[in-house]
Amino acid sequence: MRLIGFKGGSDFSISWRSLGSWEEQRNEVGMRMKTSRRDFQSMATLGLAGLALQMQGWTGRANAQTRLGSRSIVSGVQFGIQPFCYHDLDMTIANRPELLRRIVQNGLGMVELHAVWCEPSFATGAVSRQAAREMLREWRTQTPRSYYEGIRKEFNDQGVDIFGYWTGINSTYTEAEIHATFDAAKALGCRGVTGSQGLAMSAKLIPYMKEHGIFMGLHNHDNLSDPDALSNEASFEKGFSLSALFRATLDLRHFAAGNGDAVGFLERHHDRVSSVHVGDRRKNNGRSTPFGEGDAPIVEVLRLIRDNQWPIVALLEFEHGTLRKEVDEVNLMFDYCKRALAS
């Protein structure tokens, strides 16, 4: 199988180390002499499911590069956007057409879409907070798949692929809501669901990942004092150990603010990274900065992805203050990345 859009093309084995080969799983089972026949069959099923997920992820990415995201592939690196960049644009259903217009204007072919661009808000002065929450829960569980397929078509018709579905899954979600969220992500054409939930909540999502066959992206912040938070390499490794289906959504800004080594992290864990949020920030919990003025190794990370032809999506994101229009700032960021990959 050959990937389209990578520098020079690339043949690959569908057996990612992160998911483990069937041979590795079989050997592990063989070492556990007390494993039952039912356990063995369960592991075999998981192995096949994992294989199917790998093929879905790779072929989906190749197709996206050919059909949709090709406008923002630079030297083999697939770029997209975290739409939080458009700070002046309220994240609502009504503003989704304007969001899409800006993404196209910025020349980007991939997006990590927040749920709030798809879900209505029931929070008004006439409705209590609890009532609004119940109304949203009912809406999530009752909304048909065709609704999300329509949103997918909106973006695809403009050449934009929805890579991930950014959610706020937490302890208030019912089982039905979580299933509905994963179903929505699949209907949108996403490779996975992403979010900033902690390790404990992430562990509870493992059965849903397995059932729906898509990964869960673990997003980091710079909260090094909370043992449940995703923040540094050790916390990511804890997350990876919980399930082979977890992927890192590595935020370069927050990782730099927490004094992490993003280059070393990618060298050691690139096969568990689905995407990087590309932004800049100062070390020691410092402020966000324009690209090139902080301590995030943006240039080194992008070249590392390019040179190794890793299927890691680079999602532009910024939080620094600017007097420019957000579209203009994103253009500058994208241009910075293009120049970084030109040599």
Instruction: Count the DSSP helices.
Output: 13
What composes the largest sheet?
A: 9 strands, mixed
DSSP helix fraction: 40-55%
* CATH superfamily annotation of the largest domain: Divalent-metal-dependent TIM barrel enzymes
SS-based class: alpha/beta
Overall radius of gyration? 20 Å
Q: Into which percentage range does the β-strand content fall?
A: 5-15%
CATH fold annotation of the largest domain? TIM Barrel
Structure characterization notes:
The protein is an alpha/beta fold. The protein has 2 domains: 1-67; 72-340, TIM Barrel, CATH 3.20.20. The chain is built from 13 helices and 11 strands. The chain has a 9-stranded mixed beta sheet with strand order 1-2-11-8-7-6-5-4-3. Strand 6 (215-219), helix 9 (233-242) and strand 7 (246-251) form a beta-alpha-beta unit. The longest helix is centred in the first third of the chain and has 31 residues, at 37-67. The radius of gyration is 20 Å and the shape is globular. Mean pLDDT is 84; it is low at 1-66.
Brief summary:
The chain has 13 helices and 11 strands.
Write the layout of secondary structure elements.
Blueprint: H1 22-31, H2 37-67, E1 73-74, E2 77-81, H3 96-105, E3 110-114, H4 129-142, H5 145-157, E4 161-166, H6 175-187, E5 192-195, H7 199-204, H8 206-212, E6 215-219, H9 233-242, E7 246-251, H10 252-257, H11 262-269, E8 273-278, E9 280-281, E10 288-289, H12 298-308, E11 313-316, H13 326-340
Parallel strand pairs: 2-11, 3-4, 4-5, 5-6, 6-7, 7-8, 8-11
Antiparallel strand pairs: 1-2, 9-10
Helix pairs in contact: 1-2, 4-6, 5-6
